[in-house]
Amino acid sequence: MTLKTDLYIDGKWVKGSGTVPVYDPSDASVIAEIQTAGAKDCDAAVDAAFRAFPDWAKTAPRYRAEILRKAFEIMVAEADQLAELVSRENGKVVTDAKGEILYAAEFFRWFAEETVRVAGDFRKSPSGDKRILVTHQPIGVSLLITPWNFPAGMATRKIGPAIGAGCTVILKPAIETPLTAMAIVDILERAGLPKGVVNLVTPTPAGPMVSQMLHDPRVMNLSFTGSTEVGRILLREASDRVIRCSMELGGNAPFVVLDDANIDEAVKGLMLAKMRNGGAACTAANRIYVHKNIAKEFTVKFSKAMSELKMAPGREVGAQLGASVSIKERNKIAELVELSVKTGAIVETGGIMPDGPGAFYPPTVLTVDKSNEILKYEVFGPVAPIVTFESDEEAIKLANESNFGLISYVYSGELGRAIRIAEAIDSGMVAIN
């Protein structure tokens, strides 16, 4: 695997309009200087995708599937190298990075299999005198915008279905983690993807260039994963042309522990739900609600588990919590904890930024009341505020006090009770025990 640092447009690695450094957040060292995209570069990417679309859309599904399958095989073969790259530019521990690479590769395999299964529909009209035939056709050029927290998984999750369906794409990765996206595009090139089908740009600043592409009549689709704030901006931009949008935005998941729950199992579950990816996940448990009868025991056990995590550079042997992606992101976490303490939180463990280099923030547990400011925010890091409740009804009310509804978690010793709670929580997904 060769480290790529250029833009990828029309099947070629090309220079852009400038350069920016990519940092290792564990020590602030520069990993590489990447090319950045200006207005002309973004226009060239759209042009390449638009020109490639008619021929790519006509290719046989099996042909597209075989390219995706080959990309899957290359990713698996090079998983260790890719994991090292993810860990270097993102900061996560290398074991988490390896897990991400393997599930990212699975998206290519999954959509390789789905590509050959695109089905239509044939039925009678309600009047019975006509026949209705439905077929599915690729929509065209798609702009894919991916976040820094899962730079491999979010890229393959978007690229796979797009090119499998016969669309062409422009990939814009997060500027903090562009090297992983470049490596994935390189893999697709080596897998035999024709020129123009996938293009990669890294505009800096991103806003004006993304706006330019969204207002280009050749761009027909937007897929974005990122913050709710940015998602709202992009939806407004996309509304001018009424283009199709797929949005996966923020979360602020409640984790409800009822008084009949197995405390040890609930602690284990919370460690997974909170600390996957160092807490930098939209599915992370951010609001921990524990019944008052078990709150003390639960808090002691959970705080102990958090305090025992080894915080270290992601590639260090035994590391369990790596650095945040940047000093800026680490400082956001610290500011939210400071705000929480100012509004009454008690720090059970952590809460103090370590000295030395790197964007590190320690595993932190807070006990807070139900009105504490931190509960209003998606904390993208290793911070867990715990609130007590007295009844199932109060737990449901607290869980629903959020505009986010991505996922929730419920722990109970009685399945029926857990299901009743789950059904009352306004959430797209609910995980039980």
What does this protein look like?
- With 433 residues, this protein is α/β, with parallel strands linked by helices.
- The protein folds into 2 domains: 7-248, Aldehyde Dehydrogenase, Chain A, domain 1 (3-Layer(aba) Sandwich); 253-432, 3-Layer(aba) Sandwich (Aldehyde Dehydrogenase, Chain A, domain 2), CATH 3.40.309.10.
- It has helices spanning 39-58, 61-77, 79-90, 94-115, 153-165, 178-190, 206-214, 228-239, 263-275, 295-307, 327-342, 392-399, 415-424; strands at residues 7-9, 12-14, 18-24, 29-36, 121-124, 131-134, 141-145, 168-172, 198-200, 219-225, 244-248, 253-257, 285-291, 346-349, 364-367, 383-389, 407-411, 429-432.
- The chain has a 7-stranded mixed β-sheet, sandwiched between helices.
- β3 (18-24) and β4 form a beta hairpin.
- The model has no long low-confidence stretch (mean pLDDT 97).
CATH topology of the largest domain: Aldehyde Dehydrogenase, Chain A, domain 1
Number of domains: 2
With helices defined by DSSP (H or I, 4 residues minimum), what is the helix count? 13
How would you sum up the global shape? globular
Examine the secondary-structure arrangement and name the CATH architecture of the largest domain: 3-Layer(aba) Sandwich
Give the radius of gyration: 23 Å
**How many E-type strands?**
18
Strand content: 15-25%
Instruction: Let me know the CATH homologous superfamily of the largest domain.
Output: Aldehyde Dehydrogenase, Chain A, domain 1
How far is the first residue's CA from the last residue's CA? 41 Å
Q: Which spans have pLDDT < 50 for at least 5 consecutive residues?
A: none
